[in-house]
Specification:
With 274 residues, the protein is mainly α. The chain folds into 2 domains: 26-135, no CATH class; 138-274, no CATH class. It is 71% helix and 3% strand. It is built from 11 helices and 2 strands, in the order H-H-H-H-H-H-H-E-E-H-H-H-H. The chain has a two-stranded antiparallel ribbon with strand order 1-2. Helix 3 runs antiparallel to helix 4 (88-100).
Length: 274
Amino acid sequence: MKSFITRCLSGIVFLGVMLGGLLWSPIPFCIVFGFIVLVMMYEYLNITIGKRHCLSQWITIITGLLLFTGVFAVRSFGIDSRYLFLLIFPLLMIFITLLWNKDEYKEFPYLISSIVYIALPFTLLNLLAFDYAGRFNGIVVLSLFIIMWCSDVGAYLFGMTFGQKNGHKLFPSISPKKSWEGYIGSLFISILAGFYLAKFDFLPTTYTHAVVIAIIINVFGTFGDLVESQLKRNFGVKDSGKIMPGHGGLLDRFDGAIVALPAAIAYMYGVGLL
């Protein structure tokens, strides 16, 4: 009972912080999601490299944070995008630290992948949160997260109801608890969420585009969840962190978003919604 209460309270705080960051104003958005990027990169490097906290790890995390805040500044304040070229200097610092300590060469793929796998997808949120005039519209970003959350709820409810006893396992070698019944339920709920978000103008697009976006988020979100599960399994880790009592780390909470958000944004950009 105590663990259930802890989990609920932790989830409420998490939801409150997310809503504040997405609905308040640009600066809270930057603070909240900049913090998320920082913590997730820290968790990822702890899993892959370990808790050695070497200089190259911290420079990599700072580089990812600068990438997010740099694009935020370009989109929100209209700063010249050519200044993003300055990000080459912290990247060079990563190489210099690796030259300084040759034992860290084997960590290079994990350092670079942390930027590509975590910082870059969340940096793309700035393309959703701001239009070309710099106007903040966090409700669009929130809509995508609502679809992801509905997908998780659908997977849990349908999985528990139809996939526990005689269910068909989705990827038993990676995530034994996931079933096809749960996945179909998550897809159904995601489509409903996308439809109603478009109906009430939270997602300013047609019903067709909203449904396609929902399907993309569901499919790629599930893939992202499986990728992170495989990552943790490979390194013998149960949770990515302990920042959210009862839930684990932020990487556990945003594993699907890491893959789903870039896919959804790419579609929206391709069809002219951005």
